[in-house]
């Protein structure tokens, strides 16, 4: 399953990171994502509605939904029960990683130093989230990790937008980039679906090139 999930992230190239406050947003959001072919999404569990939104997006056969901001091992169980196909965490917490391995759900823990990349590698993980990417040295830092530690792929996230995503996607070590720019929390709260659809379509263009 890990290989399949990673292949789908690779084919999507861009993974929207969603912070959704209102469960009613799930249906129009799912439509905007599917229409633009952004078929992998990370639903963060940092809002009260997060788990319910995750469940609704996971119910859509055209989407591959993962859980983000997973900080506690119990959240891994909740996420898997809600249908999450992968788990993302802002940092590398061995307790969270171990729970994911026990349940057999692919996990991308956050890494921002070579030591953390090595810890992810020691767990046998094929990929990790480079977070926060821009703030942690951006593409040059990523290149340095990749040249020293070649057998792990990265999903850079944090500070990435329409203008700098391509620079990451050009890197062979990059599986796909994550970010909230195509469906930011404030636009979701305002139900600005036309704007979100436009931003999603633009983000999907990055994948096509
Ligand atoms: C995350 O949790 O991955 C970040 O909130 C996404 O970062 P961004 O908002 O800078 O895209």
Description:
The chain has 10 helices and 9 strands. The protein has 209 residues and is α/β, with parallel strands linked by helices. It has one domain: TIM Barrel. The chain has a 4-stranded parallel β-sheet with strand order 3-2-1-9, sandwiched between helices. Strands 6-7-8 form a 3-stranded parallel β-sheet. The protein has a two-stranded parallel sheet with strand order 4-5. It is globular and about 45 Å long. The two termini are 27 Å apart. The model has no long low-confidence stretch (mean pLDDT 97). Bound molecules: 3-phosphoglyceric acid. Residues 17, 44, 68-69, 90, 131, 157-160, 178-181 line the site of 3-phosphoglyceric acid (3PG).
Write the layout of secondary structure elements.
Layout (H helix, E strand, L loop, with lengths): L1 H11 L1 E5 L7 H11 L3 E5 L5 H9 L5 E5 L4 H9 L5 E2 L5 H10 L3 E2 L1 E2 L2 H9 L4 E4 L7 H11 L4 E4 L8 H5 L7 E3 L5 H5 L3 H16 L1
Parallel strand pairs: 1-2, 1-9, 2-3, 4-5, 6-7, 7-8
Helix pairs in contact: 2-10, 4-5
3-phosphoglyceric acid binds next to strand 9.
């Amino acid at each position: 399953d890990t290989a399949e999930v990673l292949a789908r992230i690779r084919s999507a190239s861009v993974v929207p990171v969603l912070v959704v406050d209102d469960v009613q947003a799930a249906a129009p959001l799912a439509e905007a994502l599917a229409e633009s072919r952004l078929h992998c999404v990370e639903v963060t569990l940092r809002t009260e509605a997060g788990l319910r939104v995750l469940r609704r997006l996971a119910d859509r056969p055209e989407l591959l939904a993962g859980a983000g901001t997973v900080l506690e091992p119990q959240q891994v169980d909740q996420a898997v029960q809600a249908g999450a196909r992968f788990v993302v965490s802002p940092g590398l917490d061995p307790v969270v990683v171990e729970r994911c391995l026990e349940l057999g759900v692919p996990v991308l823990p956050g890494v921002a130093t070579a030591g953390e990349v090595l810890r992810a590698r020691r767990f046998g993980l094929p990929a990790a989230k480079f977070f926060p990417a821009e703030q942690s040295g951006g593409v040059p830092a990523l290149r340095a990790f990749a040249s020293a530690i070649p057998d792990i792929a990265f999903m850079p996230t944090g500070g990435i937008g329409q203008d700098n995503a391509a620079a990451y996607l050009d890197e062979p070590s990059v599986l796909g980039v994550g970010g909230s720019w195509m469906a930011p929390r404030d636009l979701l709260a305002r139900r600005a679906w036309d704007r979100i659809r436009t931003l999603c379509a633009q983000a999907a263009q990055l994948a096509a090139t």
